[in-house]
Fold this sequence. Notes:
The N and C termini lie far apart (80 Å). Helices cover 69% and strands 0% of the residues. It is mostly helical. Keywords: DNA-binding, Homeobox, Nucleus. Its main location: nucleus. It is found in: Nucleus.
Amino acid sequence: EEAEAMAMSQRGGGGGGGGGGGGGYVNIGEDPALDQFMEAYCEMLTKYEQELTKPFKEAMLFLSRIECQFKALTLLSSDSPSSACGDGVDRNGSSEEDIDVNNNLFIDPSAEDRELKGQLLRKYSGYLGSLRQEFLKKKKKGKLPKEARQQLLDWWTRHYKWPYPSESQKLALAESTGLDQKQINNWFINQRKRHWKPSEDMQFVVMD
């Protein structure tokens, strides 16, 4: 309604009613650009109304649930459940309403949290998965953990004359450092290229 009033004011200008010619009033369809703008403006207002209405309804629903829980607590703590719950009381003093209260009115907040988390995961699982893959790629490309690198350096120092670990030694290093064999192989290849020069009698047997 506000948008329609605005459209009328913009089309009407300062015309002052339907009398005499030259009042400046623009009929619908005479200014397509203005019509298109007002349609988009109305759609935007409708969208905002929907976005504002949804959390309000959710808040009202939550409030009604809380009120039900308080009423249930009042019924359970009442000294005369027959007056609070009507005539549905059996000989043992319990009632169908009490059973409904116990089973339906008490809402587990943790269950609602799990449901919300599930909805968020379903909505953003693809995006989170891509972020995780990107993080793992960057982690693999980055430096090795300090403790793992120190263990490799210790092995390097002990076997400096021939720093070519066997397959069994690579497995042992992988187990002790937590690295995979590809990381260990790459580390030794780079380490030999940068920090090791074989002696003359070993240059012909180096197969790196």
